[in-house]
């Protein structure tokens, strides 16, 4: 029961200190995001990557700072529960006119659970549901930018309006030919509109901040005409010689879904009211969960909070059981899923076979590497949780037995809350978007029969995309380690994404070699490896027997990606990365680029 009176001055002081901690966090987060514009203007690509990586650490550091202050100044962990009840109510009062109330609630949860040492998520003293609405928040300060700007062109003024939209962002640097590039955009837009009548509400709405990632800056908005809303994005890049160009135009929900994919690095965006940005983006991508949009904006902790709320709601409105996930079982990770829920749950096993020379901490380090790295659309983002409680009746006995066998240290079955409900508590797990494992997707085509054109096309697309995925990872300085088909999945957009991270390495840390020529007849006929192999030695020519057993798979692979079996290809990529070159990996197909185009500034 919450108190009927707020009579603890200490409770208010604790709440105010927590709010100060959050405000400091978001001020630093926003400042770093805003600096992305200068890094883009000066082509500081390595600085952009470094800032994206370091910004991920901001949240944990600020939570730790706040906890230390509360313990030092208020001995917060020793306070009675009635004080903590009042702390939450005071905190809610401080949120009423706040511009980031949902983020501040999540920060409160993070700090509170650290201090109260709660062991899982069910807690009366945290925000299980949002207490303050995020609807219609706007910054009313005179100099503040609105969330989005609206433009009202006619057909005759559409071109000059497109120029004005780009110029409003005040990028420091000249465009090579802005009139030409907006002409390309105009032609593409006219093709989308066709001969449709321009209705009374015809307008273009554009978010007021640019979205920065890697070497690109993106204008994001939508065209509204009558009952039609057409999302769009304009990628702005640098030419090698320096000038700016609009490289392409992306239209529609599918293009925007790819741009904001869970397999890409987080954007840098300067936002005073993040919930307003999320609401705008959700209007363009209604099928994309709000949790994933917050993640894409770099607000990963808020993404985790919303994901967990969505998950609890799904549990309440479903009745199927968790099960061992379909596919080949991994040697390091135990994977389970809920058939009705589009995610998989992965926990690290306690025991590994001899060929897996690793440890729990090393595996967690690999997943952290992926979180901090540029995922170039080819590595799935993961949500990491600790002490997660599930209803026992939703777990199949077979799954419980599997966890008890392979990861007993990660499992507790108890009524920890004392409410009569037995729960399965997983100590540590990762959650990823569910994809169709590539080996199963290939097998579906084989089962269909390769005499069927559809089956043959499925195999060809699958193999071509698989090779592209590996090349994109190479461009990002990532060697997948285990390149078997089962470690890759296919998304609903047909993209191949890598999701098994326990063997990944930086490409530049590997030693790519050709298999030595045998010196004797005994060596040539030996069934064992007769040459010395170092711990990070890789022999690309040996990939073939493991990957290309099927004749059609081999034919397509050799036609499109034969260089992946040649050590010199990998060595050349290493040399480019070591020379400081950052490859261009676009979130859209090359044929979408306006002609003529060459690589952007390196």
From TrEMBL:
The active site is at residue 381. The keyword DNA-binding does not apply. It comes from Curvibacter cyanobacteriorum. Its EC number is 2.7.11.5, 3.1.3.-. Coiled coil: none annotated. The keyword Ligase does not apply. This is Isocitrate dehydrogenase kinase/phosphatase. It catalyses: L-seryl-[isocitrate dehydrogenase] + ATP = O-phospho-L-seryl-[isocitrate dehydrogenase] + ADP + H(+). Bifunctional enzyme which can phosphorylate or dephosphorylate isocitrate dehydrogenase (IDH) on a specific serine residue. This is a regulatory mechanism which enables bacteria to bypass the Krebs cycle via the glyoxylate shunt in response to the source of carbon. When bacteria are grown on glucose, IDH is fully active and unphosphorylated, but when grown on acetate or ethanol, the activity of IDH declines drastically concomitant with its phosphorylation. PANTHER family: ISOCITRATE DEHYDROGENASE KINASE_PHOSPHATASE, PTHR39559. GO terms for molecular function: [isocitrate dehydrogenase (NADP+)] kinase activity; hydrolase activity. ATP binds at residues 325-331, 346. It is found in: Cytoplasm. It holds the Pfam family AceK_kinase. InterPro entries: AceK_kinase, AceK_regulatory, Isocitrate_DH_AceK.
């Amino acid at each position: 029961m919450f108190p009927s009176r707020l009579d603890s001055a200490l409770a208010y002081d604790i709440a105010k200190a927590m709010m100060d901690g959050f405000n400091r966090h978001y001020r630093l987060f926003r400042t770093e995001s805003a600096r992305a514009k200068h890094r883009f203007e000066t082509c500081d690509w390595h600085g952009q990557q470094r800032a994206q990586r370091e910004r991920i650490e901001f949240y944990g550091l600020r939570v730790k700072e706040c906890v230390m202050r509360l313990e030092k100044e208020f001995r917060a962990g020793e306070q009675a529960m009635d004080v903590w009840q009042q702390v939450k109510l005071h905190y809610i009062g401080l949120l009423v006119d706040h511009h980031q109330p949902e983020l501040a609630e999540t920060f409160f949860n993070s700090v509170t659970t650290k201090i109260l040492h709660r062991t899982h998520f069910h807690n009366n003293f945290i925000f299980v549901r949002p207490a303050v609405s995020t609807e219609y928040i706007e910054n009313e300060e005179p100099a503040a930018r609105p969330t989005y700007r609206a433009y009202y062109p006619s057909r005759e003024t559409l071109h000059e309006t497109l120029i004005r939209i780009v110029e409003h962002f005040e990028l420091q640097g000249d465009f090579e030919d802005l009139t030409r590039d907006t002409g390309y955009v105009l032609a593409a837009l006219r093709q989308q509109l066709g001969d449709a009548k321009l209705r009374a509400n015809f307008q273009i709405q554009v978010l007021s901040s640019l979205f920065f990632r890697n070497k690109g800056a993106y204008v994001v908005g939508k065209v509204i005409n009558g009952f039609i809303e057409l999302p769009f994005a304009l990628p702005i890049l640098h030419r090698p010689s320096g000038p700016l160009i609009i490289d392409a135009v992306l239209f529609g929900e599918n293009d925007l879904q790819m741009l904001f994919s869970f397999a890409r690095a987080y954007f840098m965006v300067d936002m005073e009211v993040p919930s307003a940005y999320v609401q705008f983006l959700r209007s363009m991508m209604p099928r994309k969960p709000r949790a994933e949009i917050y993640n894409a904006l770099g607000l990963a902790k808020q993404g985790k909070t919303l994901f967990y709320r969505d998950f609890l709601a799904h549990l309440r409105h479903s009745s199927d059981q968790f099960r061992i996930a379909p596919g080949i079982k991994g040697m390091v990770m135990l994977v389970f899923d809920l058939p009705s829920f589009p995610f998989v749950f992965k926990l690290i096993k306690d025991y590994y076979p001899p060929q897996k020379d690793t440890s729990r901490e090393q595996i967690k380090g690999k997943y952290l590497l992926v979180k901090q790295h540029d995922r170039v659309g080819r590595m799935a983002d993961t949500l990491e949780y600790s002490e997660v409680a599930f209803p026992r009746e939703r777990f199949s006995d077979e799954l419980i037995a599997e966890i008890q066998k392979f990861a007993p240290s990660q499992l507790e079955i108890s009524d920890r809350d004392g409410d009569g409900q037995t729960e399965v508590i997983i100590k540590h797990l990762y959650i990823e978007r569910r994809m169709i494992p590539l080996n199963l997707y290939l097998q579906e085509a084989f089962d269909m029969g390769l005499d069927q054109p559809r089956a043959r096309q499925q195999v060809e697309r699958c193999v071509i995309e698989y090779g592209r995925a590996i090349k994109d990872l190479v461009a990002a300085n990532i060697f997948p380690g285990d390149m078997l088909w089962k470690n890759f999945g296919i998304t609903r957009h047909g993209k191949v994404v890598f999701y098994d991270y326990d063997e990944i390495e930086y490409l530049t840390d590997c030693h790519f070699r050709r298999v030595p020529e045998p010196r004797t007849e005994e060596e040539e006929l030996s069934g064992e490896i007769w040459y010395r192999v170092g711990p990070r030695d890789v022999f690309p020519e040996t990939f073939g027997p493991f990957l290309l057993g099927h004749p059609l798979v081999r034919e397509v692979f050799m036609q499109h990606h034969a260089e992946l079996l040649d050590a010199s290809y990998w060595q050349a990529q290493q040399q480019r990365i070591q020379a400081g070159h950052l490859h261009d990996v676009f979130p859209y197909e090359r044929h979408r680029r306006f002609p003529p185009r060459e690589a952007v500034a390196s």
